[in-house]
Structure formats: C-alpha cells, structure tokens
Amino acid sequence: MTTSLSVADTSADTSRISISAHYTGYVWYKHGLSASAFVTPMGRLANALLTPVNALLKGLAGAHIDTFLLQRHQVLDHLLTELIEQEGVEQIVELAAGLSPRGYRISERYPHVTYIETDLPGMAARKAALLQQLQRPDRHRVQACNILQQDGPESLQAVLGSLDKQRKTVVISEGLVNYFPLPVIREVWSRLARELHEFPTGTYLTDLYPDFADHPSYRYVKFAQKLVGFFTRGEWPLHYPSDAAIQAGFGQDGFSKTEVHDPAAYYERLNLPRARSATLVRLIRART
Ligand SMILES: C[S@@+](CC[C@H](N)C(=O)[O-])C[C@H]1O[C@@H](n2cnc3c(N)ncnc32)[C@H](O)[C@@H]1O
C-alpha cells in the first residue's frame, strides 16, 4: 500500500515512517556516533537487510545510503554547534528525533542548553523511556509532536509555545522532510517560520534531498528513492531542482536568510565519508 498526503491531511497517520528511525539509529551507532542503548532489534535487522544493497550501490555509484546519512548528520551537528558557540543559542527543539543521539550529545556538551526532542507519540514514548533510563536532566526531555497538526497539544505551536520566548532558539529536523510532498512540508515550514519569529533569533536547520536530475548517479537515486518508499510504505519525493530554488522557496515560506550547504565543502574539515561524484544531500540553515 502506498500513501499520498495532501495539504489538507492534517490528521494523517504517518507512523509507518517510524521504522526508518530504527535503521538510522543503528547507523549512528555503527559509526561511533551513538551508544548501544539507542540500538533496537529492528535497527539491527534493517541494517543486515540493507548491507548487500549498500555494497552494491557503493560499487556502482561510488556512494551508498549511509554515505549521505553520515554526511548530513555530521554537517548538521557542525551547523548547530556553531549556532550555540558563536551565536548564543540556548534552546533547541528537534523534530522527528527518532533514535538519534544528538540530543544526548549536545545537552551533555552544553549544560546551559535546553534540548527538547519530539516525535510522533509512539516514538516519543520510546525515546522518553530511553532518556529516563539514561537519567537525563529535565532540560533534556521529550514531547510528542506531529508536524502536520495545526493546533492542539501535539502541534508545533504547542511545543514552541512551551519555550522561553527570551532565548535564542533553533528547530532542527533530520531525515524528515522528504517523506512529505513539497506543498505539505512547505505548509509546515511556513507555520514554523511564523512561530520562530517570536524568539530573539529563530533558526531552522534541516537536511533535504534535492531533485538533481542531471546528477551522474540519478538512476541510483531513483532506486534508493523506491527502496526508502518500499520500507516506509509511502512516497519519498525529492524537493527542488537546485540550491537557488531551495533558497527561493524558503524565502517565500517566511525565512529571511537561507544558507544551503553542500557536504563536499566540509570533507576535509569534518573528515566526512566521500561520494565518488557530486553529493546528493543539502543542509539548510534558514533564519527568520
Ligand atoms: C528517518 S527517521 C529520522 C529519525 C532521526 N531524525 C534520525 O535522523 O535518525 C523519520 C522520523 O520521522 C518521524 N515522523 C514521521 N511522521 C511524522 C510526523 N507527522 N511528525 C513528526 N515526526 C514524524 C518518525 O517517527 C521517525 O522517527
């Protein structure tokens, strides 16, 4: 069964996507970015199933799914760290945090930072139990949030409304936006931009997989797109044909300054795994 969302589907159940968090959670662990507590049996199984596919993609296209996962995760960490260290950000909300260890790492490293992890209720409950087991302080906690909800206790508005409006704030998402058709996620971005305007500075960080149709590995991208869609029983659309189109889109959605980062620019500095040809993922830092 495949599922297609429209902008009006604000109560659509997208929990089928949550399985992908088990896979990425295992990838972060496998590459030394996380701890065993964040690993699930489903994550191990998905990794075992995809290992031969990844090997094939690496041979054919010079990069596999994990190459871009690791690039996006580490560049996002870098962009977030810059905001904390150089711009005084003190509040962070992670959307669709899944089994990511970022909240743990960042809140350990910066004791003055409040870090709220959010996800759909099922995944949020799982993460909350994990954080309790790890005895996290109250400033590192979990709240349920469905990005499609326009209002109510699980809306973006409610999560951001619970924060201190005097503190510089970042909202971050990873591995989320390509699960939604562009008009659907743009409606979310517009709401988010409006909410972020209420803070002294409001910044949104996200990864995004663009539709680079002239990329030498485009047919492998289309294959990976089908694979992700198969596992999550839905679509995984690519967004925007160029960096300039990304910038223009975020401008129309209410962000006043948008940077588009190519992981290739960070290969040396962050010691990232490299793709043989041009990279396929972009990291966006959009300010209101
Ligand atoms: C690929 S995982 C990414 C997890 C984590 N950010 C990472 O990179 O490891 C996608 C996440 O999106 C969450 N998700 C799906 N639909 C959502 C929605 N409508 N609102 C918020 N989160 C959602 C899933 O539960 C899942 O944790």
Automatic annotation (TrEMBL):
Molecular function (Gene Ontology), one example: methyltransferase activity
Alphabetized Gene3D superfamilies for the sequence: Vaccinia Virus protein VP39 (3.40.50.150)
InterPro entries reported in the protein's UniProt record: Ppm1/Ppm2/Tcmp, SAM-dependent_MTases_sf
BP GO terms, sorted: methylation
Cell membrane in keyword set: no
Family annotation (SUPFAM superfamilies): S-adenosyl-L-methionine-dependent methyltransferases (SSF53335)
Source superkingdom: Bacteria
Keyword tags: Methyltransferase, Transferase
Protein name: Class I SAM-dependent methyltransferase
Organism whose genome encodes this protein: Venatoribacter cucullus
